[in-house]
Amino acid sequence: MKINKQFKMQSFKKIYTRVTQLTKATCTLEATGVGYEEMALVDGKSAQVIKINGRNVTLQVFEGTEGIKTDAEVMFLGKAPSLRLSDELGGRFFNAYGEPIDGKYKPQGKELEIGGPSVNPVRRKQPFDLIETGIAGIDLNNTLLAGQKIPFFADADQPYNSVIAIVALRANADRIILGGIGLSNDDYLYFKNLFTNTDMPERIIGFINTTEDPAVERLLIPDMTLTAAEYFAVEKNEKVLVLLTDMTLYCDALSIVSNRMDQIPSKDSMPGSLYSDLAKIYEKSVQLPSGGSITMISVTTISEGDITHSIPDNTGYITEGQLFLRRDTEIGKVIIDPFRSLSRLKQLVIGKQTREDHPQVMNAAIRLYADAAKAKTKLENGFDLSDYDKRALKFAKEYARHLLAIDVNINISRMLDISWNLFKQNFQPDELGIRKKFIDEYWTKATGVIEEDKNSEEGNMSFVNTSFKQRNKLDVKWQ
Amino acid sequence: MRTGKVKGIISNLVIVAADSAVAQNEICHIRLGKIFLKAEVIKVIGSDAYVQVFENTRGLKVGDEVIFQGHLLEVTLGPGILSKKYDGLQNDLDKVDTVFLSSGYSTDALDMNSEWNFIPLAKQGEIVFAGCWLGEVKEKNIPHKIMVPFKLDGEYQIKSIAEAGRYKITDTIAMLRDKNGNEIEVSMVQKWPVIKPLKGYREKLRPYKLLETGIRVIDMMNPMAEGGTGFIPGPFGSGKTVLQHAIARQAKVDVVIMVACGERANEIVEIFVEFPQLNDPQTGGKLIDRTVIIANTSNMPVASRQASVYTGITIAEYYRAMGLKVLVLADSTSRWAQALREMSNRMEELPGPDAFPMDLPSVISNFYARAGEVKLLNDKSGSITLVGTVSPAGGNLKEPVTEATKKATHSFYALSQSRADSKRYPAIDPIESYSKFLEYPEVVLYLQQTIAPNWKTEVVKMKDRLLQGREAMEQINILGDDNVPVEYHEKFWKAELIDFVVLQQDAFDNVDAFTSLERLYDMQTKIAEICEMHFQFSSYEEVGVFFRSIINLFKQINYSIYQSEEFKNFNRQLDKILNENKQTV
């Protein structure tokens, strides 16, 4: 049974033994002097105050109320859920209550309640620090910045966990904190093995709730993860990368709780407060003036690409863009869909920190890719293709293979060069709609030929520092 | 002092047992240890007051002390508001010097020690009413009028007024006497409850002037009128925010109030960073000097989201009463509606559609009704133009907030997902969107006088061409390229020309971002000319090739400074191509 030893010692607390009401997830009792959101133990099970009405206090029991008796021992702990913060968290894995699950000692440090206050907007710094991943679908089309929050929208069968793991390892972060929400045990072990086998395993921290744990416990994972992230970003000025997977399961847990609280559901059976609940989490991403930052990359699984469902819909309104994974049958690989993916912060760096032709090349390529999509529809409807259509289709296939596929690993200048070569291979300058200034400079330089595959190894090296090189050499296994 | 005790807590809804009378919407403070949480009464049953707390209620206990404040939620009005960054309750965020907004923070809205050069505008002995101008101070680049407090009813006589000179903001600058001989001291600061419209004007006028934004698809296709209302619904990623920021930067107004209601913090930071650097072309000052930002971002307490839109519009009304042109941008009103829904749900009210409260449409329409151009007591005029964004769930425009807003506003800028997907920005759908102002005879007259006599006719023709292009495209898609007459392709490509050249606009390019009315007229003339031309194409493939090449030239023109050498050069090249391909009849 999950009894927290530390909690058990606080025996001076008053113990109540008369539960007046029990539902699947909550129990109610008469008690006084109880604070809102205070933690409690009900027969050793963790619970939290969610409603107070006069003397009646309602507790949400995270593990469920199975077996709880009306004379159960209820002890209030005098504090909201909290975490002990220190550098000792590094390299460790914890459960939703911040207790170790890796068999090692419990870290010491200053205890802080999770889900703390939000950052004063005027103290934020505008994100400026480009995060290179080597994946063109990200770096070229949807450039990420430190302090950004962005989800992967993926169908359940797509390799999203491998993708975020690789993005995390390639990104130049001081700390990676994984919030595993309803992870399958296999995926948990995948992350654990991958992360502990890097050259700096102490960089990694995990707060894990697997499918074997109670669903409602998941609600604590994002706040635990972000409380740790804030410690390292604020106190230690570190660049922290937070991974949250899978946020859809977090939302499902929210809907379970709201349902049990008899709240009126809004769209898709989700609680009416879904937007605020998600915003509280995602808005923790920040670029601090002191140099520390919290970047958030999450996964929101969706059903058959449907982004009108409440969960991806509310997420999209909160996050700074989204990345769509899609299988391109033409090339037989998973790509980052250029149409529906977006990084809202890319405008801050592209063409400024990256080469000046970046914005226009990116837009032209996507527009031509859209033309190819139209041509494809024509083809499917049995119509003849014009010469332009055929060239667009040829371009699209090469573009997907050399740039959109998630197994690409090259630097941004190389991505731009490849784009120009693909343009030259298939189009005339006036079909691009690119500023003459850039045509004059880059069209002439382009060869129109793409050298095969010699890129991946050396391109990769040009943006990772020495200590990162080794990590990149690791053979990251695709699930 | 009227007090009460906490009796129950459900999230940010707290039930307070009140000791004596309380008023609906009265503000109270709940003591939590050393700090006070601000809250508002939203329902009263017997002696139980249901209050919504503007902060996190963690740690609150039954029996905690509550102190009622005897007033509604108020804003503080006076010189020094411009360029401030407030939260939804008008706390000055710059005065909170910590990185985190800890519970219970509170600041003065104005700089209470500031001094201003006061110039009297009224004389001793004059009869005045609420809203009459007593004097003015120079705030940034605008003459900030010091007005008779709006809370005063009836007529007053000026007993004395301060001479021109430097005064502290709280100094008495006038003494007024009411009919009964009671004397009232007036300083530069006054307060007003946000929920009530701030009046002090003679009458509201019908909009007749164009509000120039420099955004072609708005100014030409669906113009916004000064004092009018509009809204921008769109799914996420369709460019709502970029469009709103462009409007905030470019609109020809005196004061811009940006209400970030439940939106992303980084978007506000963008304004904090950019606006102090960008020049305001109208005054020569910086853009931040004419801007007030109400930042109640999505992670800040839900209850103050609702307050934030009212705080914004009340400040706008205050500046309008000075005879200024004010633009209010509320992003996004859906978040405000959601905040209403959360509260209504906690109070277990019977829900309306999508669990929103039943009175949502009337709440929204009352809010938009606070916009408008007014004739002040001194016959000068001031205006509030109000543009809200709506974030429809799932991009579905049939949801309650969009529908209610559509009824309450006059222009509608529908952002289309498919346009956004193909990077055709701004993604305003030219056919779905509308502006009722194009039907106002006074607006049409104004356009005739300021742009061109045949302007409206030309705009309608433009829209028709877009529609024809869309129909042609549908035919081509159904029948195939070969099986439709070449004219269909020509129609389709003429619409594409309008789309690429006029509708699409690069908000991140210094030149293309803003198009003056003069340049817009030039552009329209040229495009109309090409659309009226007949070309001789031997096959449909030629049509695309030809139009792609002229679109390319037009793009280069759009990126060139108006009437520059470069601009003229590209125009000459364009004329040459047109002449070569023009069919001689």
Please characterize this protein's 3D structure.
The complex is a heterodimer of chains A (479) and B (585). Chain A is built from 14 helices and 21 strands. Chain A has 479 residues and is α/β, with parallel strands linked by helices. In chain A, a hairpin with a 2-residue loop joins β4 (39-42) and β5. In chain A, α10 runs antiparallel to α11 (412-426). The longest helix of chain A has 23 residues, at 358-380. Chain B folds into three domains: 3-72, Beta Barrel (Thrombin, subunit H), CATH 2.40.10.170; 202-435, Rossmann fold; 455-581, Bovine Mitochondrial F1-ATPase, ATP Synthase Beta Chain, Chain D, domain3. The longest helix of chain B is centred in the last third of the chain and has 25 residues, at 455-479. Chain B contains 14 helices and 26 strands. Helix content of chain B is 32%, strand content 24%. By secondary structure, chain B is of the alpha+beta class. In chain B, a hairpin with a 2-residue loop joins β3 and β4. At the A-B interface, β5, α7, α8 and α9 of A face β1, α3, α5 and α13 of B. β5 (45-53) of chain A pairs antiparallel with β1 (3-10) of chain B, so a sheet runs across the interface.
Task: Itemize the secondary structure elements and their pairings.
The complex is a heterodimer of chains A (479) and B (585).
Chain A: H1 5-8, E1 15-16, E2 19-22, E3 26-30, E4 39-42, E5 45-53, E6 56-61, E7 74-76, E8 82-85, E9 93-94, E10 110-113, E11 130-131, H2 136-139, E12 144-145, E13 149-155, H3 160-170, E14 175-183, H4 185-196, E15 204-210, H5 221-235, E16 239-245, H6 247-260, H7 274-282, E17 286-287, E18 293-302, H8 310-318, E19 321-328, E20 333-336, E21 342-343, H9 358-380, H10 387-404, H11 412-426, H12 436-445, H13 455-461, H14 466-473
Parallel strand pairs in A: 9-15, 13-18, 13-19, 14-15, 14-16, 16-18
Antiparallel strand pairs in A: 1-7, 2-3, 3-6, 4-5, 4-7, 5-6, 8-10, 11-12, 17-18, 19-20, 19-21
Helix pairs in contact in A: 3-4, 7-8, 9-10, 9-11, 10-11
Chain B: E1 3-10, E2 13-18, E3 27-32, E4 35-45, E5 48-53, E6 65-68, E7 74-77, E8 85-86, E9 115-120, E10 127-128, E11 133-139, E12 142-147, E13 156-161, E14 165-168, E15 174-177, E16 183-186, E17 190-193, E18 201-205, H1 216-221, E19 229-233, H2 240-250, E20 255-261, H3 265-274, E21 291-296, H4 303-320, E22 325-331, H5 333-346, H6 360-368, E23 372-376, E24 381-390, H7 400-408, E25 411-412, H8 417-421, E26 434-435, H9 441-450, H10 455-479, H11 486-503, H12 517-532, H13 540-558, H14 565-581
Parallel strand pairs in B: 8-21, 19-24, 19-25, 20-21, 20-22, 22-24
Antiparallel strand pairs in B: 1-2, 1-6, 2-5, 3-4, 3-6, 4-5, 7-17, 9-11, 9-14, 10-13, 11-12, 13-15, 15-16, 18-23, 23-24, 25-26
Helix pairs in contact in B: 4-5, 6-7, 10-11, 10-12, 11-12, 11-13, 13-14
